[in-house]
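Before the break, one more example. Copy the sequence into your notebook; we will annotate it together after we see the structure.
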Amino acid sequence: MDETLRRALYDFGTLVKVYAFLPALSIVVAVGWREFYAIPAFLLTAVVAAGLGRGLEAVFDAPDEVDGMSAGVITVSVGWFVAGLLSALPLLLVAWTVRLQPPMLAAPEMTVSLATFLAPVDAVFEGMSGVTGTGFSMASDPGQLPRSLQWWRSLIQWVGGIGVVVLAAAFVSSEESDSFSAVHGNMAPTESIRSTTAGTAAALWWLLALLTVASACWLWLVGMTPWAALNHAMTGVTTGGFTTTASSIESYGDPVLEATLLPVMTVGAVSFSLLFFLFRGDLDRIWGDAQTTWLFGALAVGTALTVGVLLATASYPTAAASVRYGTFQLVSGLTCTGFQTDTGLGDSWAAPGLLAVTLSMIVGGAAGSTAGGVKIVRVRRLLLDAPEHGMDVYDPSESTADTAGGASAAFDTAAIIAVLWFGLLFVTSLVALLVLPNGYATANVLFEVASVQSNVGLSAGIVDATIPASLKVTLVFAMWIGRLEIVPVLVTGQLLYEEVS
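Here is what the structure looks like once it is written out:
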C-alpha cells in the first residue's frame, strides 16, 4: 500500500477516535435531562467511533517520509464524510429505542419528528447537515425531539462549523501528525495564530467557546430560555442554523430577538484569525482588512438590494416588514447561517427576491470563517482581476497560453473553484428538477440547491422528509462537497484512484 494512503488512514483513525469524545460527552446531557433511554445510543456511537479509530491506528503505522498535504486532504475529505455518518447514529438509535420500547429504559412515546429518524437516509441527512453546518432538517418540529438529541444536533454543528480537522489538531502535535499540520492552513478556518498546529487549534476553540457563551448570555437577556439560548448560540456563532423550534426564528415573532441575532450570525462569517487579533488588541491587523471591508460592503449592498426588490414586488404589506424580513434573510444567507424569520419564502417572495438571496448564499462569508459559499475573498479576486486578465484568453500568443491568460495564481484558483462550484450547482439542480414532482418553480429549486451546497439552510419550502430518497442522497453529497469546497474531493478521488489502479 502507498505510504501516503497509509498515513491518511492512520490519521483518519486519530480523527475518528477524537470524534468519539462528542457522543461520550452527550451522555452527560442525557443523564442531566433524565433521558436515560438515550444513553445506549450515545454509548454505542462512542464505542464504534473509538473502536474504528483505534483499529485503524493499530493496523496502519505512521510512516515519516510522506507527502503530508496529500495525506491530509484524504484524511479530512473522508473524515468529514464519516463524521456525518457517525453523527447519524444517535438519531437513528434513539428513534429505534423509542420505537421498540425496551424494558427498563422507560422510553417516552414516539413523536412525529423523532419517527422521521427511523429511516436511515433521514438520519444520515440530518447528521451530514449538522457536521457541514448546513442546517436543513428532516424533523418537522425539532422541539419534539428529546433534549439530548437537540443538544447533539447543536454540538455537531458547533464542532463541524470550525472543522473536524481542527478538533483533531487540538489534540495532535505537528510531530505526531505532519499531515494535520500540512492541511490545517488550507482546511481549517483560519491562518496560523500560534507556533504549532495544536496551539492554533486550541486558541480557536477557546475563542469559539468565548463567543458562544457571550452570544448565549445575550440571547437569554433578550428573552430566550437558557436552553434555547445555548443551542441557538452554538449554531449561530458557527453559522450552522439548526434550531429547537418548528419554524426556525419565525416561531418567536420577536423583532428584538431578530435584531440580536444579526451580529451573532455576522461574527461567524468573519475570519477567525481577525477575531483572534481583535480580542488580543492587535488593531493594526484589523484596520484595512480588505476581505472584511468587502464582507460588510456586501451585507450593506445586498440588504439594500433585497429590501428594494421586496418593496418593488410588494411582497409584504408594509415597508417596515420588507426591511425587517429582507434584512434578516439576506444576512442569514450571506453569512451562511440559515436562521429564518419567514418560512414561506417560496410563496411570499417573488423570484427576484429569491434570486437576490440566492446570490448572497453563493458568495458566502469570509475565508477563514465558518461560513460556506464560494467565499467573499474569491469573489473579490475575480471582480478585481477580471478586467485585467479576462481578455487575455482571446490572445492566441504562446506566452499567453503558457501563463493561463496571464492571470495570477490567486485569480486562477478563484476562477477554478467558481467554475466547479457552478458546475455542481447546475448538476444538482438538474437532478432536483428531474426527481421532484411537477409544480416547483425553477427559482425556488435553484434557491434550495444553492442553500444546500453553500451550507446555509434557508428554505423555500422544498427540502423536508417527504422529498424522494434519491434527492436526499444527492443533497447529502452536495452538502459534503460544498463544505470541502469541491477541490479536495476531486484530489481525494484522484489519489484513491491512482492507489487502486
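Residues 412 and 463 are 34 Å apart (CA to CA). The chain is about 65% helix and 0% strand. Try to locate both features in your own notes.
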